[in-house]
Amino acid sequence: MDLDQPTVPLTGDVRMPLLGFGTWQATGNAGYDAVLAALDAGYRHIDTATMYGNEKEVGRAIAESGLRREDLFITTKLPPDRVGRERQTIEASLAALDTDHVDLWLIHWPPSSPGDSIPVWREMLAARDANLARAVGVSNYSISQIDELIQATEETPAVNQIRWSPSLYDRQVHAAHRDRGVVLEGYSPFKTSDLSDPVLVRIAQAHDVSPAQVVLRWHIDHEIVVIPKSVTPDRIRANADVFRFSLTAEEMRDIDALGGSA
Ligand SMILES: NC(=O)c1ccc[n+]([C@@H]2O[C@H](COP(=O)([O-])OP(=O)(O)OC[C@H]3O[C@@H](n4cnc5c(N)ncnc54)[C@H](OP(=O)(O)O)[C@@H]3O)[C@@H](O)[C@H]2O)c1
Question: Is the pTM of this model over 0.70?
Fold first, then answer.
């Protein structure tokens, strides 16, 4: 992947762009238009899921963009109700996305029966070994659930995608992921933020950007992957325009403190 955007290394030689485009609730033509606008605005990492019901539109937008597959990073996710049908599920995702592999395949939520977690993880690893996914990981897992997978298989999930934002910042949770070599990927950065918070507003004014852009840049400066979603062209562009400024150490600390654990 030849990118002028910051990336984080995953296991093997896979590099994951720290900024991605979220697509939950972006379905049908609106989803197609949003992904096409995102690729046009410079995003090279798209986050979808079987559950979002938009893989076909994501695939269509990618094809229409004319970008090379090797310059894109595509994530999709296995829904919990597909336990036992993992291979069939990724094959359906690949067909809908019109690609022969995804860059990252995640277990969307821990299976409802805890006994299923390790067999599902083994299926994820098998799909990776069959080159259907370049890397595999989890979403909405606790650290102890991650440790169970590592203990059983000696294979560490490349990524854990969880809810994250300044107000949810938890230094220990971040460190626990880092210590295990699991990349932390945050979701719902805006839905869990108060964009009128005085700290975010003050820092935004200092850099002549918006509080939303400060939230995104804060993730990136922590090397946490962030995947904002929007179907609004101006916001899609503004959310990608976060590489022309960076936050000072003091500003980072002030934003960390919004999580109450700093
Ligand atoms: N693994 C999981 O279980 C899980 C769960 C939730 C989400 N996710 C992933 O994470 C992605 C992002 O999370 P999310 O969609 O929940 O929420 P989000 O990205 O935090 O917020 C999206 C909302 O914020 C609005 N918005 C976008 N840019 C904005 C800006 N610059 N200023 C103000 N508002 C803005 C959007 O409106 P418009 O669209 O109307 O512009 C939309 O209503 C999802 O799309 C999905 O890919 C994963």
Answer: yes
